[in-house]
Amino acid sequence: MASVDKFLINKIMPSTRIHDQTITEAPARTERLFSRDELWYFRTRENDRVGPFRYRSEAQSNLDKFLNELRDKL
């Protein structure tokens, strides 16, 4: 009986409404780091730029910290 109810709900109420935003995939980790004017940044899933950092390794470690903090909130 539960599978029939689930089937009916999916037919009546689609999982995504017209105005809902779909979840975008995160950029590949290598694409998150970039440099501009000899300074380093990383980009979030929301396409926000975080930085500047003097070194690529500094941007990478801050990106790792940022991602770990997000995971800890889940």
Plain-language structure description:
The protein has three helices and three strands, in the order ααβββα. With 74 residues, it is an alpha+beta fold. The chain has a domain at 28-74. A three-stranded antiparallel sheet has the order 1-2-3. The chain starts with a helix and ends with a helix. The model has no long low-confidence stretch (mean pLDDT 79).
Q: Structural class per helix/strand content? A: alpha+beta
The mean pLDDT is 79
Number of helices: 3
Low-confidence stretches: none
Could you give a short account of the major beta sheet?
A: 3 strands, antiparallel
Distance between the termini: 33 Å
The coarse overall form would be flat
Quaternary state reads single chain
Instruction: Give the number of DSSP strands.
Output: 3
- Share in helix: 40-55%
The spatial strand order of the largest sheet comes to: 1-2-3
Q: Rg to the nearest angstrom?
A: 19 Å
Tell me briefly what this model is.
The protein has 74 residues and is an alpha+beta fold. The protein has helices spanning 2-12, 29-32, 56-73, and strands at residues 33-36, 39-43, 49-53. It has a three-stranded antiparallel beta sheet with strand order 1-2-3.
SSE layout and pairing:
Layout lengths: L1 H11 L16 H4 E4 L2 E5 L5 E5 L2 H18 L1
Antiparallel strand pairs: 1-2, 2-3
What key attributes describe this structure?
74 residues; alpha+beta; three-stranded antiparallel sheet; 3 helices; 3 strands; 45% helix; flat
